[in-house]
Write a structure and sequence with these properties.
heterodimer; A: alpha+beta; Uridine Diphospho-n-acetylenolpyruvylglucosamine Reductase, domain 3; eight-stranded antiparallel sheet; about 30% helix
């Protein structure tokens, strides 16, 4: 059993902490490491894709799970894949896409580990069709605080299952996953892009898109003036039998830390305006599904000063009004989001801390700057007024009182946590921020 | 005979052994995994079978405690292989200096696994590879074998001995057109208390496996992984050694 000290940082570079870190190479070692955990408990960290403090545990222990990446079995008839939690989604796609299979959910990044994707309950570009990745999970094996391993699914130990899915690692450690891969209908997708001039046009278009498109996302120009608020580029995709043209040129992948100034320039209103105006009114192209997937992995640049991400889900009824209010405030205050994206979602019913509802999910990224935190807290309040839910997977600023109003199953989650981990062996900076007020059993 | 290989992977249950086996299986080569724990071997073998169903994967037990048995294991590998045999060795056991201080037997154990087992096995395989007149041998060394660090110099000495043996072995095997590549890898975060910062992270097994295969295909004799480890070796081994010990007073 080997531990060492390591400074662990969040993806958004907003939080960091020094922790005792272990990196098990066998599932059987998880329980042995758990026995050695001291104060502040332990949290499992996959690829570290969470923007804030979800996978940090200052002065506590962190278990790095990426080396637990063995595949136990794959049934080509049923599509059932049994594997360890540290395997990356990208790896699953690389191995099984050539065999005609795909993950049920298509998130924007393939860097997530499978365990992390379940614990964060991530949604994808097909969130309006498939809900979240956890929906395709048949069962999971969970190592509990006492070192025992329990199998949980929607039918068996459902309380534990619902607490683990979306539970940010605060209830137990996922040690084995059974997930069903879907038969991919076609090899290629027809990707269509069209400009939308304002929010009304966007919402009208999205109503039909929800029924027809397999995948959908909208890039929103947050620099638009109040009368054109919500303008952007709608990207939809459907599977197609058509053959994709062979391209001899592909853009190089950029994965680097850029200076803060460079990112500021890239997110300037002028460039956003140019992006909007230079996009074709309507365009369509056919491309291989693998190329269409994981679009955000092509360019992975981060600011050294930190990025906050705010992801809010609104119902179909409240969504248009709430999104208009948020975008108008952004336009008026001239606080620019460096990225704004809208996706369609379906009600999350398999997790106590499920953040998405049937409606829309707005995702905003901001460079850290003076006064930003107050503004983001204000946006959280606005979300609350419109019955929106701020997603926990990347949040950095929520407080316990927000959870109480936004998550109706919060009590069930806390009860499950008290049942399965009464001594808080599983804890993190995130857990202490949001659940510090909760009594230990 | 085609160019397909049967890779014999020593230490097929450790993280780098697994990563290498996946890498060669991905390229369509067959794999023979050698390790001491049957359950772990089965786990590694099933992992490759589930990833690449067309690849033939075999497992053989490896008894590093009984050096005489390694010649027999090499024979079994030869019998099992249907293609050109190549060898990857990631056989390694590591104890901290503190652990070695408490129990000198651990140093003996490290020499047994990190040095003698590999020397015995590779010597037994040498005739097989010489007979086939081609093939690659990749051995995972360590940057720890280049200079003694306070927390792992016993481990480093086992690797240093292996490096020297491999230098001679390289020359011997080159006459039969068999390449021997030593990869001196940086820290696997398996031993010692180290504090990592953002830029200084344990190495990525998959990237290391890819590099091992790439270097072997090029017929490279020795490489550091990651490449910048060579700079730290240069600094520590040559520049720091010019300094006198801070604890020695001037006469």
């Amino acid at each position: 059993m080997h531990w060492y000290e390591m400074k662990v940082g969040s993806r958004g570079q907003t939080n960091s902490g020094v922790s005792q870190v272990c990196r098990p190479e066998r599932v059987a070692d998880i329980a042995k490491y758990l026995e050695q955990v001291g104060k502040n408990g332990i949290i499992v960290r996959g690829s570290g894709c969470s923007y804030a403090d979800q996978a940090l545990n200052s002065d506590g222990a962190v278990m790095l799970s990426k080396r637990l990446d063995c595949i136990r079995s794959f049934d080509a008839h049923t599509g059932e894949l049994i594997c360890e939690p540290g395997i990356m989604l990208k790896t699953i796609t690389e191995i099984y896409a050539p065999q005609g299979f795909m993950l049920a959910t298509a998130p924007d990044s393939g860097q997530y580990t499978l365990g992390g994707a379940i614990a964060a309950n991530i949604i994808g570009l097909n969130g309006h069709k498939r809900m979240s990745l956890a929906k395709s999970v048949n069962w999971i094996d969970v190592v509990l605080a006492d070192g025992t391993t329990v199998r949980a699914s929607e039918k068996e130990n459902d309380t534990l299952f619902k607490a683990i899915v979306g539970g940010q690692g605060l209830v137990g450690i996922i040690s084995l996953v059974s997930i069903t891969l879907l038969k991919r209908p076609q090899e290629n997708v027809l990707v269509e892009k069209r400009r939308v001039a304002n929010l009304d046009e966007l919402m009208n278009t999205l109503k039909s898109v929800r029924k027809t498109a397999d995948f959908c996302s909208v890039w929103i120009d947050t620099s638009a003036k109040p009368d054109a608020v919500g303008r952007g580029i709608l990207k939809t995709a459907v599977f197609t039998k058509e053959i994709a043209p062979v391209s001899s040129f592909s853009l190089p992948k950029i994965k680097m830390m850029l200076p803060h100034l460079a990112l500021h320039v890239a997110s300037m209103p002028l460039l956003k305006n140019l992006r909007y105006r230079m996009a074709a009114k309507e365009s369509a192209k056919i491309e291989p599904y693998e190329k269409f997937l994981y679009s955000s992995d092509t360019v992975r640049v981060f600011s050294t000063k930190g990025i906050y991400q705010l992801q809010i889900s609104f119902s179909e009824a409240e969504g248009p009004q709430a999104i208009r209010r948020i975008l108008t405030e952004l336009a008026q205050t001239r606080i620019d989001a460096c990225r704004a994206e809208l996706t369609l979602t379906k009600e999350d019913s398999i997790s106590y801390l499920g953040s998405v509802v049937r409606g829309y999910t707005l995702c905003l990224d901001f460079f850290r700057r003076k006064g930003l935190e107050d503004f983001l807290k204000h946006l959280i309040m606005v979300a609350g007024e419109h019955n929106g839910r701020v997603s926990l997977q990347d949040d950095a600023l929520l407080e316990h009182r927000h959870l109480v109003t936004m998550y109706k199953n919060l009590e069930k989650f806390v009860k499950a946590r008290n049942t399965f981990d009464p001594q808080r062996k599983f804890d993190s900076d995130f857990g202490r921020r949001l659940f510090a007020g909760e009594k230990k059993a | 005979m085609n160019n397909k290989r049967t890779w014999v992977v020593l230490g097929g249950t450790c993280v780098i052994g697994r990563a290498f086996a996946r890498e060669v299986a991905k390229a369509g080569n067959d794999v023979v995994l050698l390790g001491k724990d049957d359950d772990d071997l089965l786990l590694s073998a099933n992992d490759i079978r589930a990833r690449y169903p067309d690849v033939e994967v075999m497992t053989l037990p490896l008894d590093t405690g009984n050096l005489e048995s390694l010649a027999k294991t090499a024979e079994q590998c030869e019998e099992a292989a249907k293609n050109i045999i190549s060898v990857f060795s990631a056989l390694e056991t590591v104890y901290t200096q503190k652990e070695c201080g408490k129990d000198l037997g651990k140093i003996k154990n490290m020499f047994q696994i990190n040095y003698f087992s590999q020397v015995y096995f590779l010597s037994a395989m040498a005739s097989v590879l010489q007979k086939q007149g081609c093939g690659e041998i990749i051995v995972l060394g360590s940057a720890a074998g280049e200079y003694g660090m306070p927390d792992n110099y016993a481990f480093g000495s086992t690797k240093a001995a292996l490096h020297v043996w491999l230098q001679g072995f390289q020359t011997q095997m080159a006459q039969s057109h068999v390449s021997v590549t030593t990869i001196k890898a940086d820290d696997w975060d398996t031993v010692g208390t180290r504090r990592y910062s953002f830029w200084q992270k344990p190495i990525n097994p998959q990237a290391c496996a890819e590099a091992c295969l790439r270097y072997a295909q090029k017929g490279v004799k020795t490489r550091y992984f990651p490449w910048y480890t060579s700079l730290s070796v240069l600094f520590r081994r040559f520049l720091l050694s010019l300094n006198k010990s801070p604890h020695v007073k001037d006469a």
